[in-house]
Specification:
76 residues; mainly alpha; two-stranded antiparallel sheet
Amino acid sequence: MIEKHCFAFRHGKCKVLTVKKCEGDKCPFFKTKAQADEDQKKAFRRINSLDLSTKRNIISLYYGGKMSLLDDVEVR
């Protein structure tokens, strides 16, 4: 069961899409937990590289204002 390796497959169903059955590695959203974690780090690095005003707007809109999310991200 390849769906067990997908980051979004929890409790027997997909948490990202509203599909009746997991398509496994044919799904365009399929990625492992490690891949999803790395993608999130890349997104946080990108946000961290922006000017403070833009960064605050994004954090407020998408992350509930929790600027501390960026504290643990290594900026490269």
